[in-house]
Design goal:
The protein is an alpha+beta fold. It is built from 8 helices and 17 strands. Strand 2 and strand 3 (about 90) form a beta hairpin. The chain is elongated, with a radius of gyration of 28 Å.
Length: about 325
Amino acid sequence: MDIDNIECVSTSDVMDEEIPRHHHHRHSHNNNNHHRQKNPQVPKSHNNVNNNVVPLAIINPTTSVHELLECPVCTNSMYPPIHQCHNGHTICSTCKTRVHNRCPTCRQELGDIRCLALEKVAESLEFPCKHFSLGCPGIFQYYNKLKHEAVCNFRPYNCPYAGSECSIVGDIPFLVSHLKDDHKVDMHSGYTFNHRYVKSNPREVENATWMLTVFNCYGQYFCLHFEAFQLSMAPVYMAFLRFMGDENNARNYRYSLEVGGNGRKLIWEGTPRSIRDGHRKVRDSHDGLIIQRNMALFFSGGDRKELKLRVTGRIWKEPPNSDW
């Protein structure tokens, strides 16, 4: 955010519980479907009077079927509708559009031929969640697999930094390091904070300008957003908190924001939104502390030509079975 001076003071709090250190665990997945070892053919025994032949090593049929269901373009498992060219090469419906209706194997036109036999096979199989390498142990039939993956708790998170179109995804420990190292975001420990925002010319308010600070408390990470944007043609300032984790865990916490001056005060209290909800979604839902520019200038005092806002806040754990 184009703010001339930003001061953040995070109070060192003595917490009831020790904040654990985070370790980034990568889960390995031993999938026998992808690791096959070919056994050499055993030759015919010349001493066997019955002239029997020792059978060849049998390849696991499940392995070969899963390989047949692998799209040659995206390498993901194919689900109906599965398309094929006149030569029998198959491709998933998503990649059919990507290759402009040309078979990536033989370059023949794909047309609208469906591979119904392979579709029937796909319906009878079970697949691991595509997030298995991130720790998901789930095995699903393909219809349920797609539904599960859309809400899987192990799916990676998008980078919560709102100051750029960042396409980085990953788990929470990775994103915390990414925010610190790549976006140079301020990191603070503690569950209370005291921010002071100063801007020399508050009349110039550009849409979607922001500042982000990350707080570490209760063994979790929280993103504090502060920004200025146009709301119904009027400039406003907004502060809100997002939880770096899933929505279910976000409900275990509450936070408050307070801004004031000249004997007046505004207080906001709410539940932090998960970073699963995009920054713009939270902002456009007005789920946070919103300060009209005239009120912000009134809080700033003086000749109303300089913005001086002090925003204080606190994060706390919500007791179980709370009515909130």
